[in-house]
Amino acid sequence: MLATLDVVTLSRLQFALTAIFHMLWPVLSTGLAIYLVVLEAIWLRTRNPLYYRQARFWAKLYVLNFGIGVASGLPMEFQFGTNWAPLSEFAGDFFGSVLGFEGAMAFMLEAGFLGIMLFGWQKVPPVIHFLSTVMVAFGANLSVFWILSANSWLQTPSGGTFSQGHFHVQNYFAAINNPFMVRSVIHMALATVETSMLVVAAISAWSLMRRKAPEFFLFSFKLALVILLAVAPLQILAGHESAVQVAEHQPTKLAAIEALWDDQAAGSSPDWTVLASPDETSGSNRWSLSVPGAFSWILETRPQLSQPLRGLNSWPADQRPHMVGLLFYAFRVMVAIGLAAAALMALSLLLWWRGGLSAASFAQWPWFSWAWILSAPAGYLAIESGWVVRCVGRQPWTVYGQLRTADAASVLPVGEVLTSLSVFAVLYTVLLVFALYFGSRIIAKGPNLTLEPPPGLATAVILSDPSAST
Amino acid sequence: MEFLEWFMPTVWFVILALFLLLYVILDGFDLGVGILSLTSPSESQRTILMTSLGNVWDANETWLVLMGGALFGAFPLAYGTILKALYGPIYLMILGLILRAVAFEFRENATNKRPWNLMFGIGSVLAAGSQGICLGTVLSGIPTDAAGHFTGSAWIWVNPSSLVVALTLIQGYVLIGSTYLILKTSGELQRLHVRTARLANATTLGGALLITFTAPFASEALRQRLFDPAFLPFFVVLPLLGVALIVQLFRSLAMQQEAWPFVYTVLLFILSFAGLGVMVFPAVIPPSVTIFQASSSVSSMVFMLTFIGVLIPIMLFYNIYNYIAFRGKVSAE
Predict the structure, then answer these.
(1) Between B87-109 and A49-82, two packed helices, what is the crossing angle to 10 degrees?
(2) Which DSSP state fits B309?
(3) Chain B residues within 8 A of A172 when measuring between CB atoms
(4) Fewest beta carbons within 10 Å, which of A52, A177, A339, B311?
(5) Is B72 within 8 Å of A78 when comparing Cβ atoms?
(6) Which chain A residues are within 8 Å of B317, Cβ to Cβ?
(7) Hey, what domains does chain B have and what are their CATH numbers?
(8) pLDDT digits (tens, 9 = 90+) for A76-98
(9) Pick from A335, A325, A334: nearest CA to A392
């Protein structure tokens, strides 16, 4: 085994493992932060202690999640230097600057106000506390912006020239605002909100199913559902737009996620493959299940392709991604989860609208509760699948069309990378188990329903004065 | 343009030094408190120690993330070369910081706190020690080829001088952790950390003397810089000031002052960092690669400076606000 593993593969495996693990945590740090802002705003507006308790309970999960996110983010940053030194040198001018901005603008903002948000209820006036919560949410979402801008630059590098093994920036704003940036940032920001709200809804559904704190969790559920109903349709649109930009800028990735082996002429209407068994050695699908003539409808919402599409077979083997089966199914898993979640939301809205959604519904219909409970892990799976499509589909390039992954990796002793990779594999498995254990303890313990808001509140509030805000 | 090519890398060297200094002072006391938590006589006292860090540790750790990002953007070559050379200790540091962070959060929720206490302390020791090894290795020099790429062995960081720096840094963190706790606690806990501060101050003196006398033997480049007549006054005054601060710190501890020991320790850290900065400048990959060779393009540095430069005072402002909001003694809630 050892002899067959080269250091590039090991560094890729390590990056994949650490990125997949890390990705689990910022989702809540970003999306749940927005939920906390909403809760605190409602609380300041109404001064009903129920909403204060809401904010405090969900913040408990937030902090458990946040610490692991910060810690598991460290290897992401330092790996660019340790394992991807040639990439750092090649793209540091731009890529490094963006990571610097992210630290100064986003991470520090988030971390600097987190302490006040979590422990400062009695230390600062409510308005400052609310501002801190807003800053935490703002900082977290700014990091979505910068990370996605940096990653999008790897997908569609622009804003400068490539010469002598370096990227020379000519226009920073063009590099930041590269072709993939806008749609990718929107797609990811919506994903964090959607999955976070699925987590809130899942925990609420679980508690309601067990008849725990019904008033409390019915409110959490409904608030999450309202946000979900706003976000999920937008996400389907954003997902579609992301696929369109892939078709435009990364034809090899599009061909791989659709297991499209042969060229398709403009004006044709190819079948859309729903399921298939892609076979890379023969360059075709062993079997497939497809919808005749549906491909151009899905991609362009029209009966015929307006542009020709190149199949995988028309690219030299060293210029297109492999692992076609993984890309094909990861994409389908993501899309299926997005659509299924939207259907569940629609169903729940219907029930609510018809007056059938109460705390009792969840105990009465365990299938309904379970559908919601399972939607939370499904949300994470969708995000991870999306990243797999995005980054495995970019191969064999690290900087698309410019720097090959094989040339971007540091030349290191195999044993060194194997050691760090193994330590991460063991450590992250253990951490995940304990994070889930402690998370479920917080959930099982439930909210403190007798917690009183800090005293002296009436004196210092501007935001919560009903006469001032109407 | 000529001017900017000299000026921008210098500015970024100073900004990086500032970020690193802030990290070492701020996360330094976090890690110091983490190490000291291993000696806490009771669980309730340990809880006070942890509470004193609750609102600040992740912002403090973020200075390291910021330093990393800024080094990557301003000196990409140094980022690649140094981190690759320090593969082992960098991952040990990351491991230590991960253990520390998750132990902090898990302990909050655990019924049996012992395993997490141990993990918190060990993570802190590991992070502090590997940071010292990184620092020591960089100071003694990283072998590179003409293009600035690392040419040494994977074990370059295993040597006596990096061990000396590691031990000095660990006890330096214990010192600043102790003086932070003198400031933030009272009663028995405060008295305990006056004792640990006194001990750490004594070892600081020892470590400083050891590094001062062994530095000339660590590398040819350091030797040249230390005995360069232009720098000689600086390298004569610096240790004298250091000794004066250490003496002052002993007196302050004896007088049972609460805030001054921390102030003197911070000054000691600043002084040591000024010394290290002058020792290596203008090298960013000591001994041979300078900031001018390793820097990114001038336009890149100007661009970063306009964004990050504006943010530095803002970041300092809200971080200071955070400390002010939580000023005073920590109580066990």
Answers:
(1) 170
(2) I
(3) 303
(4) A339
(5) no
(6) none
(7) 2-207+216-325 (1.20.1630)
(8) 999 998 999 999 989 988 998 89
(9) A325
